[in-house]
Amino acid sequence: MRGEIGQYPAFLIGIDPGPSRWPYPFRLVQLLTAMTVHAFFGLGIMSYEGLFLADWYGAMGRTWGSTPMADQQAGGAIAWSVGEIPNLIIAVVLAMQWSRSDARLAKRTDRQADRTDDAELKAYNAMLGKLSADDKAEGL
Q1: Helix 119-138 to helix 68-115 angle, to the nearest 10 degrees?
Q2: How far apart are CA 81 and CA 5, in angstroms?
Q3: Which long-range contacts (CB under 8 A, 24 or more apart) does 27-33 make?
Q4: Is residue 90 a contact partner of residue 34, using CB atoms and an 8 Å limit?
Q5: Among the four residues 10, 57, 104, 127, which has the most C-beta atoms within 10 Å?
Q6: Percent of the chain with pLDDT over 70
Q7: pLDDT digits (tens, 9 = 90+) for 81-97
Q8: What is the pLDDT of residues 36-91, one digit of tens each?
Q9: What pTM value is reported for the model?
């Protein structure tokens, strides 16, 4: 399934064939939402004043290394950075894909206009000319 957590980057930037793809702006919003969640999660752990599961970690009697509170704060920092760095890379790749997609669409549109001798543009201009003539006839 495309929405599984393990396939999150492939869902946003992959080339999986599927019935439909979300538009690029929606994919970027989804990615920015995930980045925000990672940031708040990591910052929440880092800034928490108490020790999670203090009964357990306090009863361990560990005498080596840093304190359990320092470990908890380091864990929050790791959760934040490990979540943000890959998401930032995915955002850059997604922006590049969006740019290339727009360039391909522009080339395709230009080739179509060249093949039809700008028939769509001429029809649009004719419609605008007719509307303008109608407005002048009505005295607007």
Answers
A1: 80
A2: 18
A3: 27/94, 28/91, 28/94, 28/95, 28/98, 31/87, 31/90, 31/91, 31/94, 32/91
A4: no
A5: 57
A6: 85
A7: 887 888 888 888 888 88
A8: 888 888 888 888 888 887 777 767 777 787 888 888 888 888 888 887 888 888 88
A9: 0.56
**Which tokens go with 75?**
């864990």
Scan for tokens 């999150």, then name that residue.
8
Q: How confident is the model at residue 2 (pLDDT cuts 50, 70, 90)?
A: very low
93's tokens: 């790749």
Take residue 77 and report the two structure tokens written for it.
Answer: 């920092």
Q: How far apart are CA 140 and CA 138, in angstroms?
A: 6
Entry field: residues in the chain = 140
